[in-house]
Amino acid sequence: MSKPSILHFLTPLTYISPFDVNMAADAGFVIASYTGVTSDLVVRLTQDAMFSRDPKHAPRTCLFFGGSDGLLALDWQEAARKELFAPFEISLFSDPNGAFTTAGAMVAAAERQLKKQGGSWKGAKVTVYGAKGVVAGICGVICAEAGADVTLVTHDRSNAVAEKAVEFEKRFKRPFTAAFGSNEEERIEALKDADVVFTAARAGVQVLSQAELKHAKHLKVAADINAVPPLGIEGVGVHDDGAAIPGTKAVGIGALAIGDIKFKTQHALLLKIAKAEKAQYFDFRDAYRVALELVS
Q1: Which residue ranges make up each domain of the chain?
Q2: Which CATH number fits domain 102-258: 3.10.20.310, 3.40.50.720, 3.40.630.30, 3.30.1540.20?
Q3: CA quadruple 254, 284, 126, 220: dihedral positive or negative?
């Protein structure tokens, strides 16, 4: 009798994401959820999951790390991986609130448009607005690891993004610049030398106006993840995938175009685990890799 693929959903929050549950179910998983998880429980849950199935089916047993903290999800995945040994290796997948697959899709979609204009991430200047959030932060990390010069922008006057830039430099061994974007002057200053812009602010918040975009003389691509009006970048529609942005020489990528790639990326990664004969370990780098395959 065939045994099912099982996904154990771990989150520090009081709830699990319905989106991720639906995605896992459609990929063929039986799903168990664990809310309010603390770091000290991760090892115990990992051991329970890995020793309770025969080695043949261990790869199709997945610990899925959710929540709203990208670095915590990576830490939990690393803690779990240290517990694994042959022949009980199970699969691990971190995608907190879908942020890793969203960021991977966003960067891959922008890269496709950048390449069409003869560009690449190496040496490109990338400005990321909404950098207090996980999606924007991980977009910055992916671009930095690909060779871009990344500026992380916050909408307020807190030190949260400056602290994040320092933490990212320590963890990912890449330089990051932090900037404020609480007013028009600051947003333009962060924007003026950018080749690529990402906005991943709260839904229904316009980050950049067309008047501000006109100051970005080198801008080639602008991508926005907000699908709720007003959209994050004025002049970029939700369905746009390389459409010209009025008043600029740049092209835009909208939320639904990015969302289509994100959906396919997450499904592809889950399906790889559901059918795996060898343990799989996925994080934002794998999401970016699969998204690139999809857009190419």
Answers
A1: 5-98+262-295, 102-258
A2: 3.40.50.720
A3: negative
Buried b (16+ CB within 10 A) or exposed e, 68-88: ebbeebbbbbeebeebbeeeb
Q: Is 157's pLDDT higher than 90?
A: no
Which pLDDT value is given to residue 158?
87
Residues 6+ away with beta carbon under 8 Å from 256 = 227, 238, 239
Architecture of domain 5-98+262-295: 3-Layer(aba) Sandwich (3.40)
pLDDT value at 1 more than 90: no
Its pTM surpasses 0.90: yes
Could you read off the pLDDT of 57-92 as tens digits, one per residue?
A: 999 999 999 999 999 999 999 999 999 999 999 999
